[in-house]
Amino acid sequence: MTREEAENLKPGTLVRVAEHCRQSKTVKRTGEYGVLVLAKRTANLVGFDVVYSNGEKSIFVPANWEVV
Fold it and tell me: Looking at residue 21, which CATH number applies to its domain?
């Protein structure tokens, strides 16, 4: 996903980890899918975090995610 596409996303959007990231330990522990939520910090370029089904959060990096 490009940064321009990421800027059009809204909180609550269902996203899936991009194929090149699916072998990471974090993804194996948390699953491939997450939901976008607004980040509480302002340093993030897009302003989103991803919340996984088990409640863990990670920083949203557009290049590592695809919209479902």
Answer: 2.30.30
